[in-house]
Amino acid sequence: MASFRAFLNSPVGPKTTHFWGPVSNWGFILAGLADTQKPPELISGQMTGVLCVYSALFMRFAWVVRPRNHFLMVTHASNECVQLYQLSRWAKGQWYLQHKEDKPTTSQ
């Protein structure tokens, strides 16, 4: 009971925005995971790249802020993984489409 009370009153506990901010960021992660089932042609390379940079910057922020916000760090590390996977799918899809257009079609 004492450890739960300590968690509730912690500087990064559920009474603060340092807790609810990362909770809301899980929406990005869940959306990214849902998008893994869609074709790569529907992925926005620019938006996925922006989300990669965003998560990388906030991973650093979560590490240097005092007190360290490990929950925020894990949230952005998870989003970084999902977005990098999506970016790789987008890049492979672009490469495939480019090479598909370069190949001459044989017709009889």
Which descriptors would you attach to this protein?
single chain; about 110 residues; mainly alpha; about 0% strand
Order of helices and strands: HHHH
Poorly predicted segments = none
How many beta strands in the DSSP annotation? 0
Mean of the pLDDT scores? 88
Helix content: over 70%
Shape: elongated
Largest sheet: none
Strand content: under 5%
What is the SS-derived class? Answer: mainly alpha
Total helices: the number is: 4
Report the C-alpha radius of gyration, rounded.
20 Å
How far is the N terminus from the C terminus? Answer: 78 Å
Task: Describe the protein in words.
- The protein has helices at about 1-10, 15-35, 45-65, 70-100.
- It has a domain at about 40-100.
- The longest helix has about 35 residues, at about 70-100.
- It is about 75% helix and about 0% strand.
- It is mainly alpha-helical and about 110 residues long.
- It is built from four helices and no strands.
- It is a multi-pass membrane protein.
